[in-house]
Amino acid sequence: MGDKMNGTAVRPDKSKLYYPKMPRTWWLQKPAYLLFMLRELSSVFIAIFLIVFLVQIYQLTKGPDAYAAFVQKLSSPGWILFHIATLLFALLHSVTWFQSTAVVMPLKLGEHEMPRKLVFALNIGAWVAVSAVILILFLAFRG
Amino acid sequence: MGEETITLNVTRYRPGEDRAPRTQAYSVPYRKDWVVLDALNHIKDQIDGTLSYRWSCRMGVCGSCGMMVNGVPKLTCAAFLRDYHGQEIRVEPLVNFPIIRDLVIDMNDFMDKLKSVKSWLVRKVEKPVTEGEYRQTPAELEAFHQFTQCINCMLCYAACPVYGLEPEFLGPAAIALAYRYNMDSRDQGRDLRREVLGTHHGVWECTFVGECSEVCPKHVDPAAAIQRTKVDLAKDWFKSVLLPWGTR
Amino acid sequence: MSSTNKNIEPLWWGLFSAGGVVAAFLVPVHILIFGLAVPLGWIPDTGELFHHPLVKIYLFVLIALPLYHWAHRFNFTVNDMRLGVPRGPLALLCYGGAIVGTVMTLWVLLQL
Q: Which among A50, A61, A93 has CB closest to C24?
């Protein structure tokens, strides 16, 4: 028994407690959990894209014909579908990441914390700008 | 009289007698100003005195009456019957905790974790009373004020799937309170708390699902506290590894 | 020094964060260009740009860092989905995979 005078509480009898089990499909049971899981899985699609991209770059070491042949392979419906899906997952990652940035690293506006919507908007703006710069540089210098 | 009623489906569990929880349906008056806690009190007073549940202030400051209402962790004193009009209301004990009886869960794990993060002001050197009070600027207070609002209701633990999967995880409220004291200018306990926060079952187990902050009735935002603690700890770690000769 | 310094999780989390930033800002436009525009013929490309040293450094960052982002996230996700994969081998597969990917990226880029 616990000693109430000296401040140790009574703990319940463990043998009579009921321990609920978390179902393996827990992430399918709430929309918020499902969105979380999709966000996590976006990293898989991004990683696969980058490896495929690396393989494409590798073709260049075998000559421009090998590179062109690989690009041709990527025009198949299967690969196009994969890249569309990956683009959607990458956008999910970017949006949720910029939402997180505002939470994880608060910026100061004068004395107070910058509103999260503003931090998010600034991140989106920077992302659009960076993407535009990359696209323009690629169009200009691809040779 | 023909007053409108609403059905509550309430979890019942008798320790030592029941092998598993079951559900019991109760019909209570549907009153527009009633909350789920009022309905539970009506059940206990008028229908079934054997029902067990925790409650106290009935105004959202004590943190006692947390339960699952239609699958969502809520303070039953803040869940209005009128928001469930036309449905049946499922009242279950907070998930991710062992059930003691009916709607009462075992909260000792949480209390132990709260103690382990030293959720109080820690001083390396105590300041004698003769030296006067600790002074804080409004900015210093703002740095941690939001995180003082925690009422230890544990809704965040019920919302956190990581806590459900890994019971040793420190959990949202404990980490948020550790952060509250770390950010308090009067506190000097950051190094001590790092020993607990920096373990595998500390902040690193969190995958930023974010549901803890969604359900928090006091808008503490424990998710933010956890991620900011990760940043602080990572900065400390990189500093200690890359500049081992540096002073802390 | 604190005993929690022996825990190297901050390292993986730091790399995860860096990879997440790179993936968030740079990956979508690259999917648009190299996954859709170039294969569909909207923008013809011979890959010549990849020979440039500055571009190679950029490509290393673009490809290698998000692999650590994947590794850390995938490690936790597979555990959370309770797929029965033991923790040690899973971590080795994830972080080891990211390291292997980094070395492969370096190797390919150095050959160009």
A: A93
